[in-house]
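Figure S7 source data.
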Amino acid sequence: MTQVSDLNTQLVACGQDHLVDYLLKVTPDSARDAITAQLETIDFNDLGVLIEKYVRNYTPAASPASIAPAKYYSLDGDWDRAGYQAKGEELIRASKVACFTVAGGQGSRLGYDGPKGCYPTSCVSEKPLFQIFAEGIRRSQGKYGAVIPWYIMTSPLNHEATQAFFAKHDFFGLESGNVMFFEQGVMPSLDAQSGQILMADPMHLATNPDGHGGAFKALAVSGALADMKNRGIEHMSYFQVDNPHAMVIDPVFLGLHAFAEESSGEFSSKMVAKASWDEKVGVFCDVDGSTEVIEYSDMSDELAKQTNADGQLAFNAGSIAIHAIGVEFIEKIVSNPEYALPFHRAVKKVSHFDLSTGQTITPSENNAVKLEKFVFDGIPLASKSIVVETGRVEEFAPVKNETGSDSIVSSKAIQTERAAQWLEAVGVTVPRKADGSVDATIEISTLTAVCSDDLKGIDLPDAIEPGSTVTL
Ligand code: UTP
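Tokens for the predicted uridine 5'-triphosphate complex:
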């Protein structure tokens, strides 16, 4: 245990005198020891610097001086799709690929009381997100005759609830030994004005998960990376928990990632064409020869509006947070402090216990800074990184907000649209309204198909009845 005087010195050095005073007052000793133990998990050397940089003296980072649109493998491009698919399938068949889902976020915008992965999402049977992915993995395992282990990153805030959910549902038919949960780290949540660490209640510091970029360290310290090495896993298929359309394992993408000359097999990404110049998604750019995601808020309107001769947006490659990541790449970056990912600041509402009044405050305005790392900051650390286009409907139906865009309502509409497109591709007639939208609600289980081709050879109706609700 750190000497009390050492801890106090560290606290004072980074402006946390309020906690020194509080610890003096806390009784009994066991309560003080419990809070001290939480404080001892914090690296105060780094925290002092971070508070100065991101709270007390925050200035937004300047956008890079020279940025160009990133090159990408376009959907209709002249590249050997079938060849890469065959190579990717070989990797999967050899059980060299695992799925990796980041599910440690707080999901505050969704307003759902539980881990986001438990949220009822499929458009007819309301299967939870975790079930949609689990069944996609089962389907893929059957298709390729392979074991596809699944690594799920949680955070201390939802770890137990996530594990209990899987246990309750018998791992949705997966072998429990092939599903591994591990927790990411947390950072203390800070008062946005003073930089002081907030208390969640009289006994606990207010903390937040350290961002999806916390995944790299968490993979290593949890033993997940070692487990992958033991199993002979070479690459991870990475996706977020809140996108039911993420293809759990995509042979074409994996084939390009692992074998294309332009790729180092370290960190590859999927993109969709931006819906509009001001869509709030990060954009893949080329910064001095290296691929990076530039956040929408960091790109000038002038650049975002630029078009090519054909009228298409020049900075068109929107990130949908689907990646293929090499196991060796993670080993490389976690073992070298030079590759530590930077933090970003997010200003959010955080309820907290006010030490001076003894009241619990539920703020109506943003009051706190959360420090988070972003997984895409790993991209420029790869020696060569590729970007591959996919269809928006095909792979992007995010559930982020309670209502409006990226909500369950918009996601379900996209789910039906994709099901309709898959059915139409194999000759089924789908009723459409005058505006082109589907006049039915259609769910295709991921046990049935994880891509349109999987529907070939399946007994399907000739046509979908207008206004009907269909599950396949
Ligand atoms: P979001 O950026 O949408 O954050 O996460 P969130 O926490 O889920 O939701 P809000 O912003 O509080 O409403 C995108 C993905 O990254 C994961 C999330 O679980 C989601 O899959 N994530 C995010 C983590 O795993 N850890 C984090 O610390 C943050």
